[in-house]
Amino acid sequence: MKKKEKSDENSSMLNELLERQNEAKVVRKVVAIISVSIFLIAIVLFGGGYLYIHSALKPVDPDSKEEIKVEIPIGSGITNISQILEDNGIIKDARLFKYYVKFKNESGFMAGEYVMTPAMTLPQIVNSLKTGKVMQKAVFKMTIPEGKKLTEIAEIIAKSTNDKPEAILATLNDRTFIETLQAQYPDLLTNEILDPQIKYPLEGYLFPATYPFYRKDPTIEEIIHVMLTKTKSVVDEYRIEMEEKQLTVHQLLTMASLIEEEATEKVDRDQISSVFYNRIDAKMPLQTDPTVLYAKGEHQEKVYYSDLEIDDPYNTYIHPGLTPGPIANAGISSIKAALEPADTDFLYFLATPGGDVLFSKTLAEHNEKKAEHIK
Question: 68-131 in CATH: which number?
Answer without folding.
Answer: 3.30.1490.480
